[in-house]
Amino acid sequence: MTSEQLWINYKEKDNREAKDELIIRYVPLVKIIAGRLYNNYNAHIEFDDLLGYGVIGLIDAIDKFDHTKNIKFETYANIRIRGAIIDQIRHMDWIPRSTRQKYRKIEEVIEKLQKIYGFDISDELVAEEMGLSLEEYSKLLGEVTTYAIISLEEKIDDNSNFDIKSKNIEFQPEDKYVDEEMKTILTQIISKLPEKEKMVLQLYYYSELTYKEIAEVLSISESRVSQIHTKAISKLKISLEEIV
């Protein structure tokens, strides 16, 4: 049976079996999204847990999806599934207070230097401002990478249904306006980043490469990719806080 017929059977005929079949049919989408997020959180959460949260988001998406609209379900579900997983992760509050404090300190220093030198701030400059050696600063960036990603996602989520790598929008006109505005703001901020930081963001979010794959493309270490990524998203979050 086609997906179109399943939607008709469920939405117009309230057929429970059609809903079950839709869930089964789109579970692979949940696995893709959960797998992507697992790359960020694997040290702190089980993949099966992420998958479970994602299925909850999938069911919610199926219940709320309007099949009469000219929008692909995958487009709508991507936001719902990802949002459900991230919401659950946020509620777990498993990130140590010390990690949050370290990241906020980095943010404060980058924000200060950014106002003076713009977006092209060297690691040496940030390390010096923090009173750390370059080695100590690099290690610190590695420690806060996961929280940096969550922090940016929370900031975006608080202001929009926008997904950093997605062109997806919700159905309501006001949501579309907010998403388009957020998309424009992020595009403008990213365009100001140093070339290597832009490249890492592009390869990570749009091309969906792993740190290992990005390292091979850019001929640098995985840890260096992680550091560049952390710096880039810190700048994005700082800039978003100044604008929205």
UniProtKB/TrEMBL annotation:
Entry keywords, A to Z: DNA-binding, Sigma factor, Transcription, Transcription regulation
SUPFAM superfamilies with a match to the protein in the record: Sigma2 domain of RNA polymerase sigma factors, Sigma3 and sigma4 domains of RNA polymerase sigma factors
Domain RNA polymerase sigma-70 intervals: 210-236
Top-level taxon: Bacteria
Pfam family membership, one: Sigma70_r4
Transcription regulation recorded as keyword: yes
Protein name, UniProt field: FliA/WhiG family RNA polymerase sigma factor
Organism name: Fusibacter ferrireducens
